[in-house]
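Tokens for Uma2 family endonuclease. Go.
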Amino acid sequence: MQAARSEEDASVQSVPEWLVPPPEGFTAEDLDRLPNLPPHTELIDGSLVLVSPRKAFHTLMMFVLEAGLRRMVPRDLRVRREMSVILGKRQRPEPDLLVIHADAAGGTEETSYRPEAVELVVEVVSPESDERDRERKPQLYAKAGITHFWRVENRSGAAVVYVYELDPATRAYALTGIHHDRLKLTQPFDIDIDLTEVERL
């Protein structure tokens, strides 16, 4: 019994200090000051979410979308990759891609943006985060008033993009299109991206 308790105590002591939440849970500001925090750590409902290694589809799809958005984005908007958005005291997710207003871009030391600065968020669904990417994070983005949301799915190596727009009356996203092969839109600006490019990279 004593040996079992000692092993349990040793296990607790081996947990990094930054991983132990305070009694009230972590806050959005904690992500900027916790030491040794792994890259791309998110805060969802006051809990730290650690990101698993990315699969090739995820990385390549982000490259295709980022390059396409940068080619077409108007001068008053900017494209950002893997930057967090502070949605509330206990909510700081990190979308895969964002389109933000240029006047809110700030300098090179920025670590996050406010939801009012964000026009579009994009999540490329990963197997280990599918519930967050499909359910919880869209709920949070919609509640914060972010107008446009894309969810990107891997269908046997081919990309499928689900495009949503915020219904201001319900503060929920409405599906406006499902795109295979080509993503052609007029909102939030004119967009034409060849989704099959991911299969040739």
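The mean pLDDT is 90.
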